[in-house]
TrEMBL record:
Highest taxon of source: Eukaryota
Keyword Signal: yes
Keywords recorded for this protein, A-Z: Signal
Name this protein carries in UniProt: Uncharacterized protein LOC109464319
Keyword Signal: yes
Length: 117
């Protein structure tokens, strides 16, 4: 019961903010005492509805990069500074592009047409 209460508290404490280049999710490393095997507990991070094992890393569908390690859960979006008149877009591989706001086919820094990575 205490473990479930703690897990619920962690979920409410976790904060989400899609701020440029900042951490978007955090949480502690948890230990599930109920599944102890020979005195070893399972360590994991709670991410959305999943328990992610310690020493894992992944990229989410919305391009957040996440890790679960001895420091707990950390997810962030690596983003570059966006000049006025430009905007940030991502392709399906989470490759960041800074394009002109009024023409998404033009690179913001070079004014060249974007043809690929």
């Amino acid at each position: 019961m205490t473990n479930k209460l703690f897990l619920t508290a962690v979920m409410f404490i976790a904060w989400y903010s899609l701020v440029d280049g900042r951490v978007t999710d955090t949480g502690p490393l948890l230990s599930d005492m109920e599944v102890m095997y020979e005195g070893v507990s399972r360590e994991y991070c709670q991410f959305e509805d999943a328990q992610i094992f310690r020493d894992s890393s992944w990229t989410t569908f919305d391009c957040r990069r996440c890790t679960c390690n001895s420091n707990g859960l950390s997810c962030w979006i690596p983003e570059s500074e966006v000049p006025d008149g430009c905007m940030r877009i991502y392709d399906f591989d989470c490759y960041e592009r800074i394009v002109q706001s009024d023409n998404l086919d033009l690179d913001c820094s070079t004014n060249d047409v974007i043809t690929g990575k």
